[in-house]
Amino acid sequence: MITITDFQYDYARKNGIRRETVDRRVYILGWKVDRAISKKPAKINTKWAKVDRLGIRRAAVTYRMKTKGMTMEQAIKDVQKKGGKLSEYVVYKGETVITIGTAAECAAEMGITEASLRHRTTPAYRKRCKTDKAIRVYKIEDEDE
User: Is the pTM value of this prediction over 0.70?
Assistant: First the structure.
């Protein structure tokens, strides 16, 4: 079994790497200790954090930024004003509800891509999967739409 010394943990801490990160890299991910204590963690992209937190589609914001020359803040306000919230989906297997949520949440729960999830809402997919046990995906429509 690989043992990590206090000296190695201290070296990692000086590089901005937490002890838990070193342990996960070595014992779970199988990294060599030298790499685990020297490779700095990737920075989290906070650019889209507000968009994701508000439940706004990134594509809607990007479109406004590219075509209309808006800043991200202006694009977010414009999308909110026009009601650009993410759609919700419900996933059934037979009569049983598997999950309900946004496309990203449902896709992650099912282990598929968002594009695949959206494809499962089409009439072509429903026509192909005629069995009662097939997985069905429906987009939840708001009452005011």
Answer: no
